[in-house]
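Private note to self, pasted from the team thread so I don't lose it. Backbone tokens:
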């Protein structure tokens, strides 16, 4: 971010030195600090002698607000206003900037950005504050305890000086081992509803640069012509018709034969030329099944013995209890393939410097995967490869492929040139929808037995679908005894105290390239858990809210207490049970990524003539809400994303080829689809938990439960618009 002139003048102070103080954490742990020329650790904050403070953000920014969140932590600890700090993205270096939840891997995902950085960035800010104060104490000859920093000014009785004055002296001091963190009671920024995003102005006036904005001198644009179904290989091409396209350069088969690169002087010429290129494909090893075959395989797996037992409960004993129950509820659910469809399609630009270094300009979500791939492709050491992180226009998981798929495409397209011109790879919307990676299709089959009083005596739950983690660098973290935890998360770790809960899992055959999608397994498990709880409540003749609270009554169970609290708050704020005539309400709650979210959806109309979503009321407990405005935005975003897909979206295959192509037939949520989304944040002293994804899982089941209350039918196959529900 570029500082404005008035702000520079305010912070500059009297020092003429150009010293810069870096403060961060050594890879082995422990705080470190140095003057710019000596910094060999992972700095999280730098303070210039002109008084400009910059947060070095180790996570990428795709709209989730982490650049503001991490800057807030540093500004709070140093003693700045939020408009007195800037940010820049950290370089790609997993030894220095690893995500602590991903081991030695730099990346953003699973709503871990603030969670794994919470201590690091506060400690760095606190250390910088103490060093500046120590320098001031030495200069003024007074006790450091008498000095404070407020709004960038170092203050003591009879003294008031901008922080820039003391940077040069501070660079000569050792970093404190255990800097004192601020008491939460003294927070001015953390938790303040007045704090606003740092990237909004730049995005509004065009100064913020996304990777699509990169236009290097003399660059070429390349588009990839891909096989009609995943797994196909290029045999040959004919570009004679493309020769007539103004700006067309040439065409070549990628080294791995997975596509054909079409080069041009600009994006439009590349699009036109690609359409003109005729290609022959070998599809002998490609996916050839259609969606109905994929669904049939999943449903068959649900009816068979599960491949893995996901928990320790004896399924035979549970089955016996259910068979002897007073009442039995049984439901089978099906969730189709889904695309991520970020607003900015995938793209990146690659160039080579005069000394042979490779530079990639990218909205890099998983830079370590790209770095490792590039070291192999180019035969270069880590330090000769540079990834310049740009803003990203959304992702929802798509930019985090463990194979670095689109970045590898760009590298292959680049190595087939003489490397004198930068190459910009661009995916069109059609490329993204038809040739990308998808949330896998999943099925659930649930049998619940109830006693004479409506209490649960057994819950038998089968899940079947394609694993997203097996075969990736993260497999050892989440796959145990054959069970991919992301396939069962949200069910296996439910906060409900359900007697006789038996959970089985079957991995089904690969249908296409799959990837984690916003909230991963929670996206389907929450829907099943929360609609089944509603069905059980209905069978028991009990209010759905009261029924849930009955199974969250553990006085010593913090997760149950927190889930109960969000349920009660959402119900209170929504006026649960007091919907106007002709309206109906549905409730749901779910915990994902350490965060608890409850929703009440209020609808009107009917499934035949059109259901209207009148409003959504949300309650969230995400620990300390560092930036409440961002929490509000992320919950609204997650709710909208979840509801939009459940309403009408799916990816279908015909003989292995994707049927959908763009937003007309893979339609995102529209502004008029929901009347209002109200978000209420529960005050908390807990450490922050994830916020980018937790709004998505409970959104769909709240809507499903509301429609069931309105019309008496629970939708068990998605999307709703393809299975009996029309939306107004």
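Design output:
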């Amino acid at each position: 971010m570029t500082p404005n002139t008035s702000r520079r003048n305010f912070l500059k102070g009297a020092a003429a030195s150009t010293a810069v103080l870096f403060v961060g954490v050594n890879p082995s742990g422990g705080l470190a600090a140095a003057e710019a020329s000596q910094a060999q650790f992972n700095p999280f904050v730098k303070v210039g002698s002109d008084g400009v403070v910059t947060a070095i953000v180790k996570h990428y920014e795709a709209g989730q607000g982490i650049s503001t969140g991490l800057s807030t932590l540093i500004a709070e600890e140093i003693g700045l206003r939020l408009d007195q700090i800037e940010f820049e993205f950290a370089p790609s270096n997993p030894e220095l900037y690893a995500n602590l939840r991903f081991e030695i891997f730099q990346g953003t995902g699973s709503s871990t950005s603030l969670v794994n950085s919470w201590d690091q960035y506060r400690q760095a800010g606190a250390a910088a504050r103490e060093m500046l104060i120590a320098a001031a104490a030495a200069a003024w000859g007074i006790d450091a305890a008498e000095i404070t920093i407020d709004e960038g000014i170092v203050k003591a009785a009879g003294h008031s000086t901008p922080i820039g004055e003391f940077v040069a002296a501070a660079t000569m001091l050792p970093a404190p081992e255990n800097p004192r963190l601020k008491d939460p009671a003294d927070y001015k920024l953390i938790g303040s509803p007045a704090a606003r995003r740092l990237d909004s102005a730049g995005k509004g006036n065009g100064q913020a640069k996304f990777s699509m904005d990169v236009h290097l001198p003399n660059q070429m644009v390349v588009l990839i012509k891909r096989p009609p179904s995943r797994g196909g290989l290029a045999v040959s091409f004919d570009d004679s018709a493309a020769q007539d396209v103004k700006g067309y350069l040439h065409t070549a088969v990628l080294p791995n034969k997975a596509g054909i690169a079409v080069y041009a002087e600009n994006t439009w010429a590349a699009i036109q030329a690609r359409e003109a290129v005729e290609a022959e494909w070998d599809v002998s090893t490609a996916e050839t099944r259609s969606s109905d075959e994929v669904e049939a395989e999943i449903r068959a797996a649900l009816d068979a013995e599960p491949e893995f037992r996901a928990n320790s409960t004896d399924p035979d004993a549970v089955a016996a209890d259910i068979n002897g129950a007073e009442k039995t509820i049984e439901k089978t659910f099906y969730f189709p393939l889904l695309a991520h469809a970020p607003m900015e399609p995938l793209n990146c630009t690659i160039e080579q410097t005069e000394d042979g270094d490779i530079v990639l300009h990218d909205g890099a979500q998983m830079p370590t995967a790209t770095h490792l791939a590039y070291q192999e492709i180019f035969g270069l050491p880590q330090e000769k490869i540079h990834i310049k992180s740009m803003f990203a226009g959304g992702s929802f998981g798509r930019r985090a492929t463990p194979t670095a798929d689109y970045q590898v495409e760009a590298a292959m397209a680049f190595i087939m040139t003489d490397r004198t011109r930068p190459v910009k790879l661009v995916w069109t919307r059609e490329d993204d929808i038809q040739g990308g990676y998808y949330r896998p299709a999943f099925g659930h089959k649930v049998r619940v037995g109830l006693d004479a009083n409506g209490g649960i005596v057994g819950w038998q739950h089968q899940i079947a679908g394609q694993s997203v983690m097996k075969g990736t660098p993260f497999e050892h973290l989440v796959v145990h005894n054959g069970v991919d935890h992301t396939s069962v998360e949200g069910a296996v770790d439910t906060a409900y105290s359900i007697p006789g809960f038996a959970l089985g899992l079957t991995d089904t055959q690969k249908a296409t390239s799959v990837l984690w999608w916003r909230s991963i397994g929670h996206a389907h498990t929450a829907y099943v858990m929360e609609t089944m709880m509603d069905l059980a409540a209905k069978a028991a003749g009990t209010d759905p809210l009261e029924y849930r609270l009955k199974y969250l009554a553990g006085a010593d169970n913090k997760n149950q207490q927190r889930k109960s609290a969000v349920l009660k708050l959402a119900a209170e704020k929504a006026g649960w049970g007091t919907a106007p005539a002709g309206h109906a309400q549905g409730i749901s709650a779910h915990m994902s990524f350490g965060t608890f979210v409850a929703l009440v959806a209020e609808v009107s109309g009917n499934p035949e003539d059109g259901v209207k979503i009148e409003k959504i009321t949300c309650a969230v407990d995400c620990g300390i809400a560092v930036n409440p405005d961002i929490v509000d935005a992320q919950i609204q975003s997650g709710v909208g994303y979840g509801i939009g897909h459940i309403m009408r979206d799916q990816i279908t295959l015909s003989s292995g080829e994707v049927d959908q192509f763009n937003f007309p037939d893979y339609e995102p949520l529209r502004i008029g689809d929901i009347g209002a989304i109200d978000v209420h944040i529960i005050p908390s002293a807990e450490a922050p938990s994830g916020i980018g994804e937790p709004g998505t899982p409970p959104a769909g089941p709240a809507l499903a439960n509301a429609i069931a209350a309105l019309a008496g039918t629970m939708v068990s196959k998605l999307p709703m618009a393809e299975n009996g529900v029309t939306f107004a």
